[in-house]
Design goal:
α3 links the parallel β6 and β7. The mean pLDDT is 92. The strands form three sheets. The protein has a six-stranded mixed beta sheet with strand order 10-9-8-13-11-12, with helices on both faces. Strands 2-1-6-7 form a four-stranded parallel beta sheet, sandwiched between helices. By secondary structure, it is an alpha/beta fold. The relative contact order is 0.17. Helix content is 38%, strand content 24%.
């Protein structure tokens, strides 16, 4: 912000968000990094396509690392002067919130930290709510209330073609991964709102079946016929997003939809072929 900027606060976030083109997601980002051995690549400097190629050819399996406190400080600086609202990926999935808290102390800035308790498209919904509040000149308290309401109403599910990447990244145990591979099971995973960690909600025997199971979870949550806002994040197969949206259209009026590719840091853990669905009912809270 500048001294003449009418917004009461600026919004920053971290690389846990997958930005959506039609939402107010264009905010300073404290990036995660992808690491191949001793080589580290900030997510802002690579693409998912590059990562997919590395996953096929590089014998070293990558890891990801959270933003450093200094990267958060740099994001605060890009936001300009004045008060800041920092929105982090779920603290149940990453230490990014802790880094943001350290950055607040280092910078001496007025920073309010909001734990989204989610990731990816669901995080982008909360960033959008915060930015709308700022653009409208609403208070920080109003922004926080809107984000909490969006968090409560929004559901996030994803499915993956293989469990190998979650296993290699230490996200699931070897026995669970081996059993999943043996039975060709594809999981449907959500983020538990009580603690912000991953939770399995379904297992099916094909990737096509897992897309159907995922959209059925959305309908089960909101009830058939409920108007929905739907965001889709796809990996190496954009057509997977088409299939999911068509299934949802058969059971719900879709009042808004958008899509984007899964960012490279998240792809480290889910692998090339993955699909995420973020859904919420009806209009945004400020439109009601």
């Amino acid at each position: 912000m500048t001294p003449t900027d009418p917004r009461p606060f600026a919004v920053v976030t971290d690389g846990g968000m997958d930005p959506l083109p039609s939402l107010h997601n264009d905010v300073p980002v404290a990036p995660f990094s992808v690491n191949f051995g001793e080589k580290s690549y900030p997510m802002t400097e690579i693409t998912s396509q590059w990562l997919y190629q590395e996953l096929r050819t590089n014998p070293v399996h990558p890891t990801s690392s959270q933003p450093s406190p200094q990267q958060w400080v740099d994001a605060f600086a890009r936001a300009g002067e004045g008060e800041i609202l920092a929105i982090t990926v779920s603290s149940g999935l990453s230490g990014s919130r802790n880094a943001a808290e350290q950055a607040r102390d280092l910078s001496g800035r007025r920073v309010t930290i909001h734990d989204s308790m989610t990731i990816s498209g669901a995080q982008s919904f909360q960033v959008h709510a915060a930015r709308v509040a700022a653009e409208r000149g609403e208070s920080l308290d109003t922004a926080l209330a809107w984000m909490r309401q969006v968090r409560d109403e929004t559901e996030f599910y994803f499915t993956i073609e293989t469990l190998d990447y979650l296993r290699k990244g230490g996200r699931i145990g070897r026995v669970a991964a081996a059993m999943g591979g043996l039975l060709n099971l594809k999981p449907v995973i959500t983020v538990d709102k009580s603690d912000g960690t991953y939770a399995n909600v379904a297992r099916v025997r094909s990737f096509k079946g897992s897309i159907e199971a995922m959209t059925q979870q959305v309908t089960k949550r909101y009830g058939e016929g409920t108007p929905l806002r739907v965001a889709l994040m796809y990996g190496s197969h954009p057509e997977d997003a088409d299939a999911a949206l068509e299934q949802l259209r058969q059971r719900h009026p879709i009042v808004w939809t958008d899509r984007a590719g899964v960012n490279p840091v998240l792809s480290v853990h889910v692998g090339p072929r993955a699909l995420e669905v973020t859904a919420a009912p009806g209009d945004w809270p400020w439109e009601r």
